[in-house]
Amino acid sequence: MKNMAALSGRQPATAPVAGAPASGVATGARPVPGAAVPVAGSTATDLSTRDRVTQLLLERGATTAAQLGSALGLSPAAIRRHLDAMLADGDVVAREQTVRGSRGRGRPAKVFVLTDAARGRCGTHHYDNIATAALRWISRNGGSVAVEAFAADQVAALEDRCRAAMEDAGDDPLARAEALAGALTAEGYAANASTIASGGQLCQHHCPVAHVAAEFPQLCEAETAVISRLVGTHVQRLATIAHGDGVCTTHIPAQPGRAQSGRTVTTVRTDR
Questions:
Q1: Helix, strand, or coil here: 203?
Q2: What does the alpha-carbon distance between residue 96 and residue 180 come to, in Å, rounded to a whole number?
């Protein structure tokens, strides 16, 4: 939600300072949001690779070491070294991969997810306290109805922009979901759409107001209503970043009488 992103204070990255030291941080200069801070024993190459790992995890959500290594062209030992360092620094956490349906023998593979602190350094949560305080004031003085009205107003402009971008998408909900994923990606949501056995799925790998929405789910509800109107059918939110999931996932039920092609349509590459 771009307007809410403005409320949460996202700031543009500062341009590199001419004559800055090789570490990439000029003496006395303000660090660029999302940039790795040099630490003892880290090389410029190490930090650059970890920035790329961070970006992949931001876009994809929960990802295995093998998937990260493959995407970056790194050996298992090399990607493990970087992940171990990020675990030690508190930038990622590891957990067992969720497996739907039957699975083979052995334990599920570990997946890695960015911590809230790491997401915050990507410049996504500045001034969250102010945004949350403002919504608390609205809630105290106007009640939940006022919060809902505020949330709906914030996503109205996003809905208009996405609708314009989807003008040629046709009437099929899955085709519209694919077009919507492209529109949301242009808005900074790192979204993708795919067909699955039960219909379709829209995933958003980034949320600019996740911390605020954790306390005020009306923001997520307003966004879900926008997705439903733009896709042209009832949808169901299965997961949200605001409530601790790696990805915001919206299910689009199969339409009666429509055969599912089984193909996957993606706007942003994801193994999710």
A1: strand
A2: 31
Grouping H, G, I as helix, E, B as strand and the rest as coil, residue 181 is: helix
Encoding tokens for residue 265? 């349509």
pLDDT tens across 121-157, in order?
Answer: 775 445 677 888 899 999 999 999 999 999 999 999 9
Which helix (H) or strand (E) covers residue 92, if one does? Answer: strand 92-96
CB 110 within 8 A of CB 64: yes
User: Burial level of 82, CB count in 10 A (0-12/13-18/19+)?
Assistant: buried
DSSP per position, 205-242: ---TTHHHHHH-THHHHHHHHHHHHHHTS--EEEE-GG
Token pair listed for 57: 């995890």
Residue 267 in tokens: 């706007």
Contact 265, 179 (CB under 8 A): no
